[in-house]
Amino acid sequence: MPMSGLDAAWVLMCTVLVLLMQAGFTCLETGLVRAKNSINVAVKNVADFSLASLVFWIAGYAIMFGPSVGGLFGFEGFLLAGEANITPERSSEMVFFFFQLAFCGTSITIVSGAVAERMSFKGYIAATLVLSLLIYPVIGHWAWGGLAGEASSGWLEKLGFIDFAGSTVVHSVGGWVALAAVLVLGPRLGRFGEGGRAIEPHNLPIAALGMFLIWIGWFGFNGGSTLAMNDLVPVVLVHTLLAASAGGVSVMALTWALDGQPDVPAMLNGVLAGLVAVTAGAHIVSTGGAILTGGVGGLVCVFAMKALERLEIDDAVGAVPVHLAAGIWGTLSVALFGEAAFFADGVGRFEQFGIQLAGVAAAGFYAFTLSYVALSLIDRFIALRVGARAEREGLN
After folding, report:
1. 3-class secondary-structure state, position 73
2. Which of 14, 201, 293, 354 is deepest in the core (most CB within 10 A)?
3. How many CB atoms lie within 10 A of CB 225?
4. CA separation for the pair 206, 265 (Å, rounded)
5. Are 95 and 12 in contact (CB under 8 A)?
C-alpha cells in the first residue's frame, strides 16, 4: 500500500539511523580487537555491507518478500523488478526495500566481530554470501513475509510468532552463523590451552563510541519497524531506551559483585544485549516489562560469555552472547511480558511461549546447520583461517 509522505519520511529517517549502526559496529569491533587486526576488521565491515546490499537487491528481497511458496520462501521480485514508472506504490516499495536492506546488512555484520583476528578475507566474503542469500532472507520470509501482503506470509507468521524488529530474524540468525563460524575456525592462538589468556582490547574508548552509535541507530531499528509515524512510535522508543539502560546497569552490578570492579567490555555488551532482547516485543510490553527484558538480557549475555569461555569457544567481541543468547531470551520473553491481547485469538501465554520457542528452534536449526555445513565445505576450497604466521603478525 502507498505510504503517506509523513510515514515514508519517518521510515527513511529510521533507515539512515540503522545504517549508522554500521559505523557503530566498525568502531565497537575494531576497538575490542588488537591494533594489528583493526584495519582488517574495519574493511570486512565495509565489504560485507556492500556485498550484502547487492545480494539483497538481486535475490534476497524476492526470497524474503515475494509471493510465498508454501510459507517457506518467496519467488518474485528479483532485481527489485516492477514498474519503472515512479508511482506512489513504487515509491513506497522503494522505502520498504531500503529499510529492509539495512536490516539485512545488520545481521551480516554480526559475524565479523566473532571471527576477528583469524578468519581470511576470502573466507569471510564466502560466509557473507551464504548468510545474505541462503539464510537471512529465508528466515525473514518465515516471520515477516506478510509485511509485503497476505500472499507472502510465511509459516511462522501464520503460526502466530511475534518478532517485532528482529531479536530472532536479525540478531539470533547472525548469532547462529557466528557460532558456526567460530566452531569451524577454532580459537585464536594463545587464547586457550597451556598458557592461554584473555586477549585485551586495544581501544576501549573507540569501542564505547561504537556502542553509543549502535544504541542511537537502534532507535531507527525499532522505531522504524512500525512502518508508520503513529502513536506506537514513542512507546517503542522509550522501551528501547529503558531496556538498553537496564542491560548496562545489570551487567555493571553483576561484574562489580563478581570481580570487585565493573567489567568495561561486558558493560558495553550488556547495553547491546538489552537492546537485542527488547527488539522482539518493544511494541507490546509495558515499561516495566521492557526494563525486565533488557536487564535479564544483560545477565544472560554475561552468563553466555562465561559459558563460551568454559567450553573454549573463542568469540573475539562477544557477538554470540549479545546477539544469539540475548536474542533467544528476548524472543521468549514476548510470551512472558507481552500484552496477551496482542497474541492471536484464543492464544494464552503458555501457548504463545510454545510458538516463540518453535520459532527460535526452527531459525536456530536452519541457520546453524546450513552455515556450519556450508562453511565446512567452503573450507575445503578456500581456507577460512589464515596461517599461524599471519595470525601472529596481524591481518592488517
Report:
1. strand
2. 293
3. 24
4. 11
5. yes
Q: Where residue 34 falls among pLDDT bands split at 50, 70, 90?
A: very high
Give residue 43's region: left, alpha or beta (phi > 0; psi -120 to 50): alpha
Q: Which of 47, 37, 30 is nearest to 108 (CA)?
A: 47
Task: Look up residue 395 and give its DSSP letter.
Answer: -
Cell readout for 280 is 522482539
For the purposes of burial, counting CB atoms within 10 Å of the CB of 311, is it exposed (0-12), middle (13-18) or buried (19 or more)? exposed
- DSSP secondary structure string, 156-179? HHHHT---SS-IIIIIIHHHHHHH
* Coil vs helix vs strand at 34: coil
Q: Which three cell numbers stand for residue 121?
A: 578475507
379: Cβ–Cβ under 8 A, 6 or more apart, which residues?
123, 184, 385
The set of cell numbers assigned to 146 is: 506478510
Beta bridge partners of 385: 119
**Four-residue CA torsion sign, 24, 27, 28, 29:** positive
Cβ contacts of 40 within 8 Å, gap of 6 or more: 116, 121, 394, 395, 396
Q: Which residue has the cell 510468532?
A: 161
* Per-residue pLDDT, 312: 97
Q: How far apart are CA 255 and CA 78, in angstroms?
A: 48
pLDDT of residue 2: 86
Spatial separation of the C-alpha atoms in residues 127 and 181, rounded to whole Å: 8
> Can you give the length of the chain in residues?
396
pLDDT tier for residue 250 given thresholds of 50, 70 and 90: very high
Sign of CA dihedral 126, 272, 343, 66: negative
For residue range 213-222, list pLDDT tens digits in order.
999 999 999 9
| Cβ–Cβ under 8 Å, residues 76 and 66 | yes
